[in-house]
Specification:
The protein is mainly alpha-helical and 159 residues long. The chain has 6 helices and no strands. α2 crosses α3 and α3 runs antiparallel to α5. It is elongated, with a radius of gyration of 20 Å.
Length: 159
């Protein structure tokens, strides 16, 4: 096999290995006091307080939180499928990974639409507060994960 072809195949295999097995990579332990991902009730309370929601906005809030809450059966299905994908031959694995990406995109679009519906129910002041809460890089987001350099975490390893 030609050297450049071998190199391309090696790069492709390594890329697929990281894509399929990324969850198995070691993660840093959470910092002291980290409580994990908040429950839907905690998310509702946090948004209710931060946005100063009115009672007539409660239905919109509950619909938004429900749309954003991961379903345990879906998480279990994804984990099982990821484990099964690792054993497949490369062409089949690529097809399954592409199908997973399509499913993740559809789920993301559904969450974006739920966010837009909730946002439309907010006053201008509440929208400004929501914009601050949901801005990229905000650690207050319910799904924010601690990372290198975050309080309580070490700096990134040297290159």
């Amino acid at each position: 096999m030609d050297r450049s072809l071998r190199r391309a195949v090696l790069i492709a295999v390594l890329t697929l290995s990281f894509a399929a097995g990324g969850q198995s990579l070691a993660q840093q332990p959470p910092p002291p006091g980290y409580q994990g991902v908040p429950t839907p009730a905690e998310q509702s309370d946090r948004l209710r307080r931060a946005l100063n929601l009115r009672p007539d906005q409660e239905t919109a809030l509950q619909a938004f939180v429900a749309a954003m809450t991961p379903r345990p059966e879906e998480i279990a299905r994804q984990r099982a499928e990821s484990a099964a994908i690792a054993a497949l031959p490369t062409p089949e694995r690529l097809d399954r990974l592409l199908a997973q990406m399509d499913q993740m995109r559809a789920a993301t679009v559904a969450k974006m639409e739920a966010t837009k519906r909730f946002y439309a129910q907010l006053s201008a002041t509440q929208q400004a507060a929501f914009d601050r809460l949901s801005a990229p890089g905000q650690a207050s987001r319910p799904t924010a994960q601690p990372h290198y350099g975050a309080p309580g975490y070490p700096p990134p390893p040297p290159n």
